[in-house]
Specification:
Elements lengths: L7 H13 L8 H14 L5 H8 L9 H13 L10
Length: 87
């Protein structure tokens, strides 16, 4: 079966258009796998504290103030809510 979409944005637009029209969306096994993996990774975003620890040059045990500030900007840009680190 030939693919009817050229990229992720086009696939999303096709699915949304059919859903808005109240029509069923049937995916091939390959497309279903692709969509499933995208959905799983879309919700798997790190917290600000996790990002702060990843980017900290000093390798602090807990997120330091400068890196926490940078991490807040990064996670906000990618749509994750900025939550304070847990003690």
């Amino acid at each position: 079966m030939p693919r009817r979409w050229a990229g992720e944005a086009e696939l999303a637009a096709l699915i949304i258009a059919r859903a808005n029209a109240g029509k069923r969306v049937t995916l091939s096994p390959d497309t279903a796998l692709f969509v499933g993996l995208k959905l799983m990774t879309a919700s798997a975003k790190p917290t600000a504290a996790e990002v702060a620890l990843m980017i900290c040059d000093s390798r602090c045990e807990r997120p330091c103030y400068p890196c926490q500030g940078k991490a807040n900007v990064i996670v906000a840009a990618y749509g994750q809510s900025v939550k304070p680190p847990r003690s």
